[in-house]
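ok so heres the complex, two chains, lmk if somethin looks off
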Amino acid sequence: MDFIVGFLNATLRIATPLIFGTLGELFCERAGILNLGIEGTMFFGAFVGFTVAAKTGSLMLGLLAAIISGILSGLLMSLLAVKLGVNQHVSGLGITLLLTALAMFGFNIAFSSNRVLPSIESFPQIKLFGDIPILGTIFTQYGLTYIAILLIPICAWILYRTNFGLNLRSVGMNPEATDAAGINVYRLRTLALVIGGGLIAVGGAFLSLAQLGSFTFGIINGRGWVCIALIIFANWEPIKVFWGALLFGGVSALQLRLQTTGIKFPYEVFLALPYIVTIIALSLAGRNATYPTALLKPYKRE
Amino acid sequence: MFKYKIVRASAPVWMRTLIPIVAILLSFLITSIFVIIAGANPLAAFYNFLIVPLSSQSSALEVLVKSTPLILTGIAVTFAFTAGYFNIGAEGQLYAGAIAAVWIGINFPQLPSIAILPMMIVGGFLAGVLWALIPALLKVYLKIDEVVTTLLMNSIIMYFVSYLLNDYWRNPQSGYPQSPDISAAAHFVRLIPKSRLHLGFIMALLVVVIVYFLIKRTPLGLRMRASGANAAGARFAGINVSRTMLTAALVSGGIAGLAGMGEIAGIHFHLIEALSSSYGYTGIIAATLGGLHPLGVALAAVFIGLISTGSQTVSLALGVPVYLGDIVQATLLLVTLGMLLLQNYRIERR
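and the predicted structre for the whole thing:
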């Protein structure tokens, strides 16, 4: 029983940054922009959040700074992919390379006098169900985890029940028609990238401000790419994002448990397992994927 | 009112050659902000970046050493991109090639250079092909986006490398996470004494020439260019786009594998986790900067090699973190990308 309870607890924790990242990317892709800047945005968000929190002593300020950093990276992507309309693959990767370099550069400067790896007092865990057995243990999570879970229905509501969501979906499917209906395609896509960037950066900041309380160069470790895969797996539906994140989180959590059982097996196989499972899940689900039809297509008003 | 106007047309030659130069200047201008943040003088930094590495023979040769893997990954990326296949997995394919090269280099100590080096080259190429195979098959047969899968494959191979170094090839005496050394016969010869420039550089140049010929002068190259430019049109013209893409993806993986093989045989002689400093991703910068033209890509790779070497001189001379070099490269990519749009315009007299 302890095994299952601990497993579920870890699954939710590991799924949290993925939920933020995937929901953020979902906004971008639904508007027709594949934002490969996600990996760098998460990394930069983790760095900015950690550095501001360490220097000011306020975790909340750190989180706020991370959100702003994400918004700025969204604006940069908008400048390239929306305003200029350049190749989304290359510009997104370029942003990832740039933000990764900036974060490492900034970390070296900000903590150059530190002899040991700096760390902070991270966010406390909240017991949602108090000390009730099982439920109490499973739901001893960071506040951001609860926010992540709440965000899923909220995003679904925004996407399917608001005018903004309707416009967003149409701009990702047929920008010409959306423009003809009197909606500013450029502004809407920029807004989507801004919202997406903010969410993605929170995913990164969760790792440095809550889960770890420190910042390392391997902190994101391909999680951004996993988010990109999860979206295809989730067929661009917010609710299904939850299941995808739980699947990856579950495999990762299982891997952590199996390592501690002492089974004689190279532990790297377990570490790679979530990525392998993601590819397999993608192969099974990706065939029926219905891509936003205008994804990767820059819009030019003639 | 204005004497000139901008019209949509192919840009004149002078403008095309000016674009990279302006992009380089602009990138250095933007990144000088970070030099100032680090407390250094931008002019001194860029002197150390661009001039100091070229001012002595040994450091100029070191630029070529640094650019050797970049030429290969840049060409690998170019080969796939030309056919419209976005291979972002050169990083992983490089490691696959390196693993194969190390394995061959360790296990056949009795073979002479003339036998073992070709084996390592072929092995490195095939390993790269193998690591590119799964994303390529998924793309061609199931229409699964290759960008996502190649990126995930990069993460997976790093765990495999970690397993090899901490377990399979672990040296019980030293305890360092590195494989045993390859046999002396498996080393690439040095081209110039007292420098690290090795035969791998010639291999890279040969690949450039072969790929140039393949893309520009063969039916396969024509099919690749057609598929990349307009897949639907190519299909209509009777080209098997899927097959062309598959070929391009696999050859691209093989070339990236050669980059890993070259680093093993020429520089490191054993596998380490930090074998590649993001050469696979930097190859994308080289490919974009070089305009997907093999010769341009090779030149761009040498320039990026200069920036990498320069970032170390800057770091030593001025105490600026070496990551400044990565910032310059990424900025250069983004600025070039924006400026390439100018290729579609022409300035005309009214």
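quick notes: The CA atoms of residues 62 and 196 of chain B lie 7 Å apart. thats all i got rn
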